[in-house]
Amino acid sequence: MSEQTVLIIRHAEKPEAGGDTGIDGSGAPDSRSLTPRGWQRAGIWTELFAPSLDHAGTYPRPAAIFASAPATHSEIAAGNSGSKSRRPLETVSPLAAKLGIDVNLNFGKGQEGDLAAAIAQIDGITLVCWQHEDIASIATALAPTVENIPSHWPGDRFNVIFEFSRTGNGEPWSFNQVVPVMLQGDPTSSI
């Protein structure tokens, strides 16, 4: 097995009470979608991972992209795992389209351990976009012996990358936080 890098990001901005409303990809109001600022951030993630005009990327270009699968209303009503949100998929869809790869939606909210097991087997660079409250679960399932992984992802942080790297299967993971300042007001500190 060759080198592996797993990058985990949180979905971009969501509607908040008294704030911007969500809009879907066609511009229609949708509480399950990103806000206009969230769509801006999705575009910036695209440029950071796959810049235009053949410039070198700021961050490694993913060969595989995962996002939590949005659940249907009937799946949620039945108590099945999954997310009411489309925001993780919307956050990485522009990047996936630019790279010409499909977003893997085989895992949903509640299946973080299964996701971690799957991505641990992928050579190269993998990007995961998920809901903030479950990112620590993915991280600790992926790298249970790494001690400096935050146990909580703050609800107001949208510009952090959890980066895990190792030289091969069975080797220990290294962990790093990357904090790009993408939009005005983005914090510069790790979480």
Q: If you had to describe this structure to a student in words, what would you say it looks like?
A:
- With 191 residues, the chain is of the alpha/beta class.
- It contains five helices and six strands.
- It is 27% helix and 16% strand.
- The longest helix has 14 residues, at 36-49.
List the helices and strands and how they pair.
Layout: E1 4-10, H1 36-49, E2 64-67, H2 73-77, H3 87-99, E3 103-104, H4 112-119, E4 124-130, H5 132-142, E5 161-166, E6 174-178
Parallel strand pairs: 1-4, 2-3, 2-4
Antiparallel strand pairs: 1-5, 5-6
Helix pairs in contact: 1-3, 4-5
Compact overview of the structure:
Residues 10-36 are annotated as: Disordered. This protein is α/β, with parallel strands linked by helices and 191 residues long.
Identify the notable features of this structure and list them briefly.
six-stranded mixed sheet; alpha/beta; Rossmann fold; Broad specificity phosphatase PhoE; 191 residues
Number of strands: 6
Query: Strand fraction band?
Result: 15-25%
Task: Return Rg in Å.
Answer: 16 Å
CATH superfamily: Phosphoglycerate mutase-like
User: Which word captures the global form?
Assistant: globular
Count of discrete domains: 1
The CATH class, by name, is Alpha Beta
Low-confidence segments: none
Major sheet strand order: 3-2-4-1-5-6
At CATH level 2, the architecture is 3-Layer(aba) Sandwich
What CATH calls the topology is: Rossmann fold
